[in-house]
Each structure stands twice: as C-alpha cells, then as structure tokens.
Amino acid sequence: MDYELSHLATLEAESIHIFREVAAEFERPVLLYSGGKDSVVMLHLALKAFAPCSLPFPVMHVDTGHNFPEVIEYRDAAVVRAGARLVVASVEESIRKGRVVEETGPRASRNRLQTTTLLDAIEEHRFDAAFGGGRRDEEKARAKERVFSFRDEFGQWDPKNQRPELWSLYNGRHKQGEHIRAFPLSNWTELDIWQYIAAENIELPTIYYAHRREVFKRDGMWLAVGPYVTVMEGEVPVEMTVRYRTVGDASCTGAVESTATTVEEVIEEVAATRITERGATRADDRATEAAMEDRKKEGYF
Amino acid sequence: MAELLRFATAGSVDDGKSTLIGRLLYDSKAIFEDQLEAVEATSASRGDEYTNLALLTDGLRAEREQGITIDVAYRYFATPKRKFIIADTPGHIQYTRNMVTGCSTADLALVLVDARHGLVEQSRRHAFLASLLRVPHLVLCVNKMDLVDYDQKIFDDICDEFRSFASKLDVNDLTFVPISALNGDNVVHRSENMPWYEGTSLLHHLENVFIASDRNLIDARFPVQYVLRPMQNAHHDYRGYAGTVVGGVLKPGDDVVVLPSGFTSTIASIDTADGPVDEAFPPMSVSVRLSSEIDISRGDMICRPANQPNVGQDIDAMVCWMSEASSLTPGAKIGIKHTTRSARALVKNLHYRLDVNTLHRENEINALALNEIGRVTLRTTVPLFFDDYRRNRETGSFILIDEATNATVGAGMILGPTQA
C-alpha cells in the first residue's frame, strides 16, 4: 500500500471537504444548478459528500427562459434521481415584475439579467451560501477567486479586498444579508471534469455529444438556429455535426464542430484543443477583456 | 492516474518568473491560442516590446492598469506524469501575505534569482517564508543564464551563498537548477548550453520529486467535520462522522479515543459513497462509524489512545499578520479557526518580531502590523487538539479572524503548548 491518491481522487476529496464545511457552517446553503457539465459534477459530488443522507440543501436553477430543451429535460430527471428539492428562479419573471429590462436587437441576451434574478432569489430565500461550479482555469478573473468568496449585502465581489485563504481553513463568517459563494471545483480543469465524468460514469445532457444541428456563424462562433436567436442578414444557416463545450443561455452559447459521440472521444478532443472553452463558445465573455470580472463584481455566478 | 503536485512560485517580474510560468504552461499546452492572442493584442496596444506573459495571470483590471500583480493566482497544467497546480505569488515587498498563502498548501516552492544579480534580499525572504511554512521541497532557479554566458562559476557561487543562508533555515530538500526561461534552457529539456550541469531539467524535477512521504502517516488525526444521520428508515441507526483524514492511517478495528470527551471506542467501518474502505489516509474525505454510541459533534477529534495530540488552551505560535486595517496587540481578543473548531483567543503575549530579511529577533515590540511575523502566546476559550506545525501542517495551523469585520487577519503556525 503506497498511500497515494490519483489526482482525481485528490480533487474529489478536496471538493467533498468543501461541501461538508459549508453544510456545517451555514444555515441555508443552496446549490446553483444549470444542467451544465460542471453543475452536473457538482451535484454528483454533493451527493457523495452526504451519502447515505439526502442532500441537506436545495438546488436552484436560474432560468433565463432561453433553454436547450434537452437540458431542461435532463435537469428535471436528474433532480428527481437525486431526491433533491428544485428551486427555479426565473429571469422571465424578473422581466415581468420590472426588476430588469429585456435587451433588444438581434444580439439581445439575458445573460447579464441573470445576476438580478440570482441576487433576488438569494435574498428571497435567505440563502447564506451558494455553491457555484466556477473553476479557476476558466477565466483570468476566476484565477484569483477564493474557494469561499465573500459577497456583501449588494451581492458584490471585491477582487482587491479578498480574504486570504490558507491551508484548508475556510472563513465563512458573514453578517446578515451578506453571503458566501463556495466553489468546490476551484482546482479542477476542463480536462479533469471530463476525466471524472468518464471515471464515475456520469450521464450528461445529450447536447454535450456530437449531433446534427442547424447553425450559423456569428463572431466566429456557431450559434444554433432557434426561437431565441434572430438570424441576421448575411448569416447563412447550415446543418452541421456539432457539440457544446459549455451550456449557458441559448442565445449566447456557441457550438463547436465535433464528431465526438462518447466521453472518451470528448476527452481526446479536449486534450488536443488549443482554445479555451469560454473563448470558443461564450459570447458573454467576449464583450471586453474584463467582461467576467465586471459581471462578477455585480454578483454574477 | 497521475498524482497532483502543488507548488508556489516566488520572484519579481524582473526575475523572469512570468516568463518561466508562461513557458511551462505553453510547452505543456496549457496556454490556449485565444489566451495568447488576447495577451499579444494587449501587449501590442500598450507598446510592450515583447509579449508580456504576466498578462496571462494578471487578469484583474487594477493589475492591468498598474502593471502589478496584487494577489495569488492559481494556474494549472499537466504532463502525462503529473498534474500541477501553481500558486503564483507576487514577489513585491508588501506581499509577504500572498507568499505565506501560496506556500500554505504547497508541496514545493520555486524561488527565482537573476544570475546577473545573484541573491538579493527578496530571494532570502522567499526562502525563509517557504521554510517557515514548512514547504517540504525548495528549488532555487538561477535564471537568465544566457545573459552570463552560461558561466558555471556564477551559478556555483550563487548556490554556495544560498546553501550557507539555507543552513540557518529548516530546509530538508534543496535543489538548484540553472535555467534560461526565455530560451527554454533546462526548463523542459536539458540544455546543451550548460554541459557542466549534471542535474535534470526543472520540469523533470517537478515530475519526479517524491512527495508521498511528506504527509504525516504516523499520527492518526481525524477532526470531525459533519455528522451524517440519515432520517430515513433504510439507514435508521446510521451515524457516521464525516471528515478529512489529516494525519496517520485509520483502519476498521482500530481502537480510538474521542477528544475532548476521552471516551474510547473501535472503528466499526470507514465509509465512502463508493462503499467501505480498508484504510483511510490523508487527504481522504470519509465517514467513520464507531462500534459504540458516543456523543460526538463537529470540532471533536478522533485519534489513537496511545498517540494523542496536545489538548490545551495555551498555545505558542508564529503568526503572520495579514490585515492592513488593524494590527495584532497584546490583550486583543480575536476569533480563531483551527481544524474544524472555531473559538476565541486572547493574545496573552507578543514575544518578538522576526525580521524576514535578516532573521533577527526584535524584542520589546507592542504590535504586529501587516506582513509582519512574530511569536505569540494565545489563550483560547476552549481546548484545541493540536500538534506542532513542523509535525503536522493541518493540526498545527490556524487562522485568526477579526470579530468585528469577519476578515481573516492572521495565519498561525503552532510551536507547541505554552511552557509554564
């Protein structure tokens, strides 16, 4: 016995530690869940952290209303399988109530509007900790984010004034109205996520694997033709074999050309790719060089 | 499956640290084309002469505007042999705090010096902090060898000077590598420009340095983190104590004692979601069931009757102060988090401040300010179950929390129980 753990086992142990730490120290945590692969892995890890008990917190989907139907179907089935309680916070409802105003034009997206819906839901349900699936390898603003990331009473993140985080001692103290975002996947990379999905045999929404879809090119990305995207003049829809590397709002998430139909084939593709998943497929991160930092300061995921 | 190595890097921009990290990431294909293009575009628009790889990690607006690194950045890369997590810490003088943070979880610390300048104050400070945080392996990279004609004598002199300094520190494993991060000499492959160098390339060292024995596998320590009690008929009598093993090896059948109650029992089983296991060792997260019903809650510690940690409220420790807004003063009351226990602590005594450049002890001081390190005596409201930091980094460390602002204001490394 050499008492060595593989890197996936080490990452899993660290994530489970974080889940338990939050459950122990907070009154009302919630797990943010979109049906995207990172949140799927999060739910899997959370169930493992508390087995054989059921999940000691609900899961919440911030629903833009611009969904891939396959993902919603997957979400509902997964939540039932997990025996979890699902809270849906709806951007559409935020628009109806006048909390936010819908963007207009062919490039309109509800991405940014989600922040208000998320913060309203955290306030309404008095959640004091929200688990997010953010990873530090995703984006440079996230590379400096803490595992326990403090948010003030406005939900704001102050990157210049973060709590030092040492050893595995996480400081979750906060006042009423403030909350903590907890990131159990902080140290995972995209490849780790896929290797873990393969090792644990985790089912994903089908759109992560290659399928035929009608798409058109915008800003170098393949967007799906659908009810939430207006095809502009000069944009020519074509049918292609694609898959998704990330799953967000259907209006701003791009597909990549791919023939990978199994998790092993996806791993091969991820290992060989030379473009980050957000760079390849997320219009929301392309707005400016600090687009993620700006949204995170406002309270984004 | 490859294992994981966490390492901290220290050095200033001038030492070529960003270039070195950039090269490790680029050569292991962890930098992507879109990231490189974005950095190239920014460099060009700022009029930089060459692509500034620091922009890969300095992602915050304030950092880009001021051209400085303000915080620890975590970077990831992998080779077929290992997966690496880099805690990239800024080398600037006021950021001792970041180096301490980065080193707290590191298996290895990588200190860079510029071959043209040799050891400077900052190199000594970085080496000292790595030893204070008990980072098990230290690598001194003498960079920019290309600018000194790959001269062996220059390298040897720097190594000798560093060795003599390191003899005053607690450094177990010290390695020297002459490199040129810019040209790639001895970074991934052995360089043909330095035939006199008999060691391995830096990456080869990072891939092969033996870290498995760095953990304490002798003293069984299991801080109870969370109690699993399913309210379901299927698991009616289940009561599992969930936590992370931070020392030693636990096995079913082991006799154990629970602190602070002192009750003894036997491990009935060690469970995970994938089923029971025969052994649990650091850093596994498991759930322990005992053969008898004892009242146990979060913050308690399970260990072996013949090998127990110190139990006490009076603790001596080295503390690094991390707050700009306040200072540590004798008589202050402050929050403390140690393993899974939270309590309050009274600062009974502040013995001395350590000058991180000279290692000189300054006595008769009345406060520790930001980035200062000193020896303190604390009295806690409840007993803690602790080991010396040099014996166990998990049971020997704590953080201090300001009770008014909830900010983390200090990091502590336990020296031992206060001697009466």
TrEMBL record, chain A:
This is Sulfate adenylyltransferase subunit 2. GO terms for molecular function: ATP binding; sulfate adenylyltransferase (ATP) activity. InterPro entries: PAPS_reduct_dom, Rossmann-like_a/b/a_fold, SO4_adenylTrfase_ssu, Sulfate_adenylyltrnsfr_sub2. Residues 29-254 form the Phosphoadenosine phosphosulphate reductase domain. It is an enzyme of class 2 (transferase). Its EC number is 2.7.7.4. The keyword Chloroplast does not apply. The lineage of its organism: unclassified sequences, metagenomes, ecological metagenomes. The keyword Methyltransferase does not apply. It holds the Pfam family PAPS_reduct.
UniProtKB/TrEMBL annotation, chain B:
This is sulfate adenylyltransferase. It is an enzyme of class 2 (transferase). NCBIfam families: CysN. CDD domains: CysN_ATPS, CysN_NodQ_II, CysN_NoDQ_III. GO terms for molecular function: ATP binding; GTP binding; GTPase activity; sulfate adenylyltransferase (ATP) activity. GO terms for biological process: sulfur compound metabolic process. Its EC number is 2.7.7.4. Residues 2-215 form the Tr-type G domain.
